[in-house]
Give the backbone structure.
Amino acid sequence: MNTRIALLPVLCTVAAVASTAQAPAPDARELLACYAATRDELRSYILNSRTDYEYDFVVNVERPDLVGRRTREDLEEFRTDGLRFYYRIEVWGNLFDPMPYTKEKPAYTSYLWDGRTYVQVTHGTDFGDPEDLVHIVPRDHEEVIGFIPVPRAYGGRSAMGFFWADVRVDTILRNAHELHVDPGTALVNGTACYVIRGRSPQGRYMLWLAPEYGSSLVQARVRLAGGDRVGGHVMPAGFEWTCELRNVRLRNIDGTWVPVQSDAFESKRLSSGTFERWHSHCEVTHIVLNPDHDALGSFVPKDIRNGSSVCTSKPGEEFQAYTWQDGELIPRPD
């Protein structure tokens, strides 16, 4: 494998961004098309990652007990061929107090869709529900959109161009009513970037795209507020969410630029007065592009343990209860 690594240095703050001499800027939509072409190369892959979260619950009207600083750690695996997917996440940390999830005994959930059937597996715990729970139901593509092309829970989601919405940022800005490129370029720790500013019904965006790396996204600022639309929903008055993407590191794998490390600084304010902010640091620990998913069994359940409680149904039928034993569904007595 011919691998080239582009490390955008760790300090990537406002002070580290400097403007170069002005030059005619390319068209914003042309830049977004270049970015889209680079991102579209990453379609079929297996990715493992680790994400560390630090939360600061400043005010929590809904949960007064959930205040102060909390931490969370995620281990994730995501497999996709651009249509089917398998996503596994293991989570632990004091964010879930009084639930004592630890690295040795994390919260474990996996989600799989083979193009027709959706399978969700949750492993039981010593302090919660001790029974493994499995749901097996037929679903179409529209019902699993929160996982394709990138899971909503993935820690490196913003570096992939997905912020609050399930739509990638280039698609959002393609129909923006305000869209332009700053004159010249800006340096993000020595890397020349074009800066795109856009405003759409889905928020305000400021993107730094690096032409040296296939117009990859190396920094971003995003703001959603009351009145903005996301996924068919209008954000209520008093709502505000912000995200700053920084410290992106890219790796060139067989000609495809892949974001393998990033930091996201986010905050959320609700109309109730609740305000929280958090920082996530995501590192890709392993990635394989264009694997033979069928040979690997990427979209075949492998983590259903004997004794699991299984609920399954067919269209128009009620859920049926079973026990999983050696790959077989054993009907449970009524």
The chain has one domain: 3-82+149-303. The helical segments are 28-40, 169-174, 293-296. The mean pLDDT is 88.
